[in-house]
Amino acid sequence: MKKKFKLLIFLIILLFVFFLLSQLRKEITIIPNLSYEKDKEVAAQITEMRKNNNQSLLEKYKQLRIIDVHSHDVDALDLSERRNNDNYTSVKDLWSKYGIDQTVLFGAVSDPTAIKSDLLSWRYYEQYPEKIYPSFAGVKIDKDGLSKVKQNLEIGYMHIGELFAAATYSPFASVRWKAKHPNDGNLPEVYDLASEYNVPVLLHIDPPKGLPMQQFELAMKNHPDTTFIFAHGNVHTSPQYLRDLLDRNENLMIDFFSGYTLHNPGGDYKLDDFARIVEEYPDRFVLGSDSGYEIGLENSYIAMYEFIDLLSPKTSAKVAYQNFEQLMERQAPTQEQINLIKKLTEEKGVENKTYHLNKREANELIFTLQKMSN
Ligand SMILES: [Zn+2]
Predict the structure, then answer these.
(1) Cα 254 to averaged position of ligand 1 atoms, centre (Å)
(2) What is the per-residue burial (b if ≥16 Cβ within 10 Å, else e) of 128-142?
(3) Does position 150 have pLDDT exceeding 80, yes or no?
(4) Cα–ligand 1 centroid distance for 248 (angstroms)
(5) What domains are there in the chain, each with its CATH number?
(6) Residue 208 and residue 285: Cα distance in Å, rounded?
(7) Which of 127, 98, 117, 111 minimizes the C-alpha distance to 292?
(8) Is the pLDDT score of 87 beyond 80?
(9) How many angstroms is it from 247 CA to the middle of ligand 1?
(10) How far is the CA of 164 from the centre of ligand 1 (A)?
(11) Which residues line ion ligand 1, judged by CB < 5 Å?
(12) Quick one: pLDDT at residue 141?
């Protein structure tokens, strides 16, 4: 009897050891990799690009990576394919024509209709992950809006906005979920989530003075770990105003809409005037087309190059893409991404593997694994 009992214990231990070993073999480990260094060699490449003065700006900077941080064009991405209209150019074709390498893509903003365009942005991201940073702007600013924000951030969206944190003069000022000011409704909780996920928030604030801007500065002060991007920050402001704003708020970045300053005939300032401020704060500016609002998309892209051409090589590299890329590369994989990777790899029979990933890479791995299942 005693002998049999010992044998049973031995077998149980043996089974347990086998079980542990089999689990160990299957283990999929995901380690966040958030390292990012701005490539210092790009400045020298830009100096080289500038040596040929006979080229157009577009040819000159063909090799320079450009990120457009502000695009409402999700609905215009692939129309040419559907319309079969030779005269019509889809936005994606314009990206290739104007050397726009990546775009922060959304559609409608601060309105129920944005829920649909946010989904579309994600769908195109799945299709063209190398060209798109998915953003969402369908944020309802009352209590029940928050769970959707968290859900989107968990799924893998890497950017929030454009949100109408105050809008009086914009032709879109009637959007249903716009805020009265940047601390209205649940916006402070949205900023908390943004800092938790290390995702930047792009805010539209008009007019860019008085109470809306006081509230904006209060929001930046109350949420020091959130990165705020001031949408088209050079519209109806001055270089000196931006300098003071940047000086006071370390977590602020400026979405620079070069096309506005270049093409606005009544404007008091030239691109040169702003370029000087950018040299003082080279890590705080990014480029946005605003879908060519009032000036046309193509003019807006060309204006980006006009502006880059005024900056020092080192600053050009940062503003063209590095400042924004850093914001994207330093986001960690979310729990939902991790769970999905584990599930998909398990289905593929992948065993004993360690992934070092950021949020973007986790998205891309998920897309690859999903394509393998289809
Ligand atoms: Zn705007």
Answers:
(1) 12
(2) ebebbbbbbbbbbbe
(3) yes
(4) 23
(5) 65-325 (3.20.20.140)
(6) 17
(7) 98
(8) no
(9) 23
(10) 7
(11) 204, 231
(12) 84
